[in-house]
Write a structure and sequence with these properties.
The longest helix has 21 residues. Helix 4 links the parallel strand 2 and strand 3. The strands form 2 sheets. Strands 1-7-6-5-4-2-3 form a 7-stranded mixed β-sheet, with helices on both faces. Strands 8-9-12-11-10 form a 5-stranded mixed β-sheet, covered by helices on one side. With about 375 residues, it is α/β, with parallel strands linked by helices. It has 13 helices and 12 strands. Helices cover about 35% and strands about 15% of the residues. The structure holds pyridoxal-5'-phosphate (PLP). Pyridoxal-5'-phosphate (PLP) binds next to helix 3.
Length: about 375
């Protein structure tokens, strides 16, 4: 057993070169070979090298790399669900996942409920006879609310249903849902795992038995990834622990400073003792509270001007990279929700979601203060 820092760097599968050679062949000899090698079989050397690393980081037995987070999510859902099934989703999940559920499930006669954060505590009461799966995300986007994963896994096990967690915001460095009893962990690797805003991929890690159950659908749906991108992921993962540690520290420093700033309204960060779920976050996020935080300007009419005046922090969508980025969810990531839906979820017009990078915390704070001034 190595520490996470070492697991990020060390390749179990040794080659003469220190790194895994990039293997691009899509046609492979089969006579005399036990296994048919093919990217969509999820079994090429570059795919397996990063799966192995991610399994160690997430304390999982087996997994697969996909061409996007959305491919990983849809493959997992549709590999277990059939007509007549029901799924419980926590309400505060990635907007693209909500869209997938709302736009696709009805076509296949799959029922669902979205459960708000507070009601997650009583999720057992919402389980029906045909409920097949509970799906959640913590910390959530963009309000950083926290779901108690041990409680979710207890309820799921009691009712014999699957539990699935999108661990994108937390990263495997800070949080390991499988160790808390969750069955399947997903990532949009496009965010922290890639970490440089230049890769798009998804990850599924789980037990060998569940991976074997997902695999036939994964093969049919075809969301696999090429060797060149896998190689870049291998390189990115080497610095994951370093990057996340810096992002954890930067975000905590910024959250504390923003809380003290008279021009700032509410600050949402699970690492702040004032956060309503801080105790749960401290229990299940072992190494830090992540690099994502949200805040509101007191004078919301200045939001657009504030974004325009930032020099260092980039108004951009996506998150989790080494460069700090910021967005206004109401006009970007959550623009597809109606105003009422946004209000129900607590996403105000002036809410800003900051993905804290690895720059100096002092420079980032100076950027925010200068833009406010
Ligand atoms: N899960 C979360 C939490 C996300 O933020 C995103 C994308 O923003 C996804 C899943 C989807 O991932 P991708 O864009 O890689 O398909």
């Amino acid at each position: 057993m190595y520490s996470k820092e070492t697991d990020c760097v060390y390749n179990r599968q040794q080659h003469q070169g220190v790194n895994t050679p990039i293997y691009t062949s899509t046609a492979n000899r089969y006579i005399g070979y036990e296994e048919i090698l093919y990217p969509r079989n999820f079994n090429t050397e570059n795919q397996l090298a990063i799966v192995e690393k991610l399994c160690r980081l997430e304390q999982a037995e087996a997994g697969m790399i996909f061409s996007s987070g959305a491919a990983a999510i849809s493959t997992v859902l549709f590999s277990f669900l059939k007509a007549g099934d029901h799924v419980l989703f926590s309400q505060e999940i990635y907007g693209g996942t909500v869209k997938l559920v709302v736009e696709e499930f009805a076509k296949f006669n799959i029922a669902y409920d979205f459960v708000s954060g507070a009601a997650m505590e009583n999720i057992g009461a919402m389980i029906r006879e045909n409920t097949r799966l509970i799906y959640t995300e913590t910390p959530s986007n963009p309000l950083l609310s926290v779901v108690d994963l041990e409680q979710v896994s207890r309820v799921a096990k009691k009712h014999g249903i699957l539990s699935v967690v999108d661990n994108t915001f937390a990263t495997p460095i800070n949080q390991n849902p499988i160790a808390l009893g969750i069955d399947i962990v997903l990532h949009s690797g496009t965010k922290y795992l890639g970490g440089h805003h230049d890769l798009c991929f998804g990850v599924v890690v789980t037990s060998q038995q569940l991976k074997d159950a997902i695999y036939p659908s994964a093969l049919n749906f075809g969301g696999s990834l090429n060797g060149l991108d896998c190689y870049l992921i291998e390189r990115s993962l080497k610095t994951l622990a370093l990057r996340v540690e810096k992002q954890n520290n930067n975000a905590l420093q910024l959250a504390k400073a923003l809380q003290e700033n008279p021009a700032i309204g509410r600050v949402y960060y699970p690492g702040l003792p004032e956060h309503p779920n801080h105790a749960i976050a401290a229990r299940q996020m072992k190494k830090g509270f992540g690099g994502m935080l949200s805040f509101e300007l007191k004078d919301t009419s200045r939001t657009a001007a504030f974004l325009n005046r930032l020099q260092l922090i980039i108004p951009a969508l996506s998150l989790g990279g080494v460069d700090s980025t910021i967005c206004q969810p109401a006009t970007s990531s959550h623009a597809s929700l109606s105003e009422q839906e946004r209000q129900e979820q607590g996403i105000t017009e002036g809410l800003l979601r900051l993905s804290v990078g690895i720059e100096s915390a002092g420079d980032l704070l100076h950027d925010i203060e200068s833009a406010l001034a």
